[in-house]
# Entry
Amino acid sequence: MIVQNVITHLEELSPLTYAEEYDNVGLLVGNRKAQVTGVLVTLDTTEDVIEEALKNKCNLIVSFHPIIFKGLKKLTGHNYVERIVIKAIKNDIAIYAIHTALDNVINGVNDAICRRMELRNKHILIPQKGTLKKLITYVPKSNLVKVRNELFRVGAGRLEHYNKCSFNIDGKGTFEGNETSNPTIGSQGAFYENAEVQLSLIFEKHLEKIILHTLFATHPYEKVAYEILSVDNHNHNIGMGMIGELPEAMEELRFLKVLKQKMNTSFIKHSKTFNRKIKKVAVLGGSGSFAIEHAIKQNADVLITADLKYHDFFKAEHNILLADIGHYESEQYTKSLLVAYLTKKIPNFAIILSNTDTNPIKYL
# Structure
């Protein structure tokens, strides 16, 4: 197995196309064609994590946070980022970062928090725009079922809780092939009219390559007429944060104690309590101040997130309880999520959960 095989599995879970524009995700260090001896999964890549990888004979580190975030202009070992990259290269260790690509998928970082809090009726808090496309193509009526079914098979026509969604309009297609054509039906230089169906299907944008490949492979015509349109519809499977409901409502202070225990944190900063019941819970792992207004608009009773500043807490305005549980603490179960996923995809292979505590923040 090579590095690219592991990357392929990771990008089936969280395609990089959904990462935020500012982010730096994917293979940051190493050769994607290198043979993999073992995979170490961590939240951050530190010098201690490199040592742990060497000790466990792992030459691929899958890290949530990217060690290279901004451009590197030199590698002199002047700071911790340069030292880590140099050490990885020196020891032939590849580093792959997944970060906001995993933040933005429905089974990613925020779902891990939801599962810890046992939330029900979950959905994306801030759906990402521009993630859906529409394929419009024209298929001979006799070939419609075959072409449509193959497009369904590779992921076209999925709309939230529904599969195999399409729209079909009967019509007539016309063409006339020139002297270099090789028409499937009709002949060169002859005008031809055929009963066709205009087939329309929505798909998630990361599937475009496989969908077009499938269309060309199954469509009977030498040249396939098709259109790809970008649509602004919300994709309820892609976006930042999640919102769900507790099995039963609880008082704010009790909720905070439960949150502290379930998220394994010794310290929670929160806004003023008002002896209200907590039922609807919004979550956003990592820095989440930008989600406060979204959570309020969706009538969340609490927003669980991290990195809130002093003035962010004023934004609660008696409408919501804000709970800052810490950046590391909000994302810590991401490692277990990735290990479980890769172990299922690549059984009987060394997928190791890092034991290194990479949290740079300590509490007294």
